[in-house]
Write a structure and sequence with these properties.
Helix content is about 15%, strand content about 55%. A hairpin with a 4-residue loop joins strand 6 and strand 7.
């Protein structure tokens, strides 16, 4: 196992431990009556990456729920050609990349607390992200990249106000990436690459 992989795993374990402590502190100390309602959610951090993602969680049973999130991806990056040549080690005239697409993620959750939608949970998810890149040099090239993945998460929801909730999660995932490209743009991709998925959602109770 390489030093990079060992360091990545160590960081994930430390993050998981910190998250677990935070969730334990945020979990209510007493059971409440079941509340079979919707929660509307958004990913505030995705806005900085050009990913506008929203979703909804439905409490199906006393301790289980289903969640679906979807989003639109739209961003543009202007590149410094000399810096890019130094990074890639090859001569290039690539000076901008524009990408757009969508992401969809269904998820099943089983809560460890007495009530769905509140406290700690374990979840299983699938994820599809399809992107079309437009790369501008002395010509314009197109690339289509599709990432399909699945994984597990440990997370928890906590009340920020009576209506506003926070949702923290972390866990392992696997994904496979397929790229279709033209003759001028060649990218190496891995098949079923392991990784760690983590993040935070803000929710509004309905």
């Amino acid at each position: 196992m390489s030093r990079t992989v060992r360091g990545f795993i160590r960081q994930a374990l430390i993050s998981s431990g910190l998250l677990t402590l935070l969730l334990c502190a945020a979990t209510p100390g007493r059971a409440q009556a079941p509340d079979y309602r919707w929660q509307i959610k958004s990913n505030p951090f995705g806005l900085f990456a050009g990913q506008f993602q929203f979703g909804a969680e439905r409490h199906l049973q006393e301790r289980s729920s289903a969640q679906l999130t979807a989003g639109y991806v739209r961003s543009n990056l202007e590149l410094n050609t000399s810096d890019l040549e130094s990074l890639l080690g090859v001569s290039t005239s690539l000076n901008s990349v524009d990408w757009q697409g969508f992401v969809v993620q269904p998820e099943w959750r089983q809560y460890l607390s007495a009530q769905a939608g509140q406290g700690m949970y374990v979840g299983a998810f699938a994820r599809v992200r399809c992107i079309r890149r437009i790369m501008v040099t002395n010509i314009t090239g197109y690339q289509r990249r599709t990432a399909v993945g699945a994984g597990l998460v440990l997370g928890g929801q906590f009340n920020m106000t009576p209506r506003l909730t926070g949702d923290l999660f972390i866990g392992p995932q696997m994904k496979s990436v397929t790229t279709n490209y033209g003759d001028h743009f060649v990218y190496a991709e891995g098949d079923w690459v392991p990784g760690v998925r983590f993040g935070m959602l803000l929710g509004w109770r309905q």
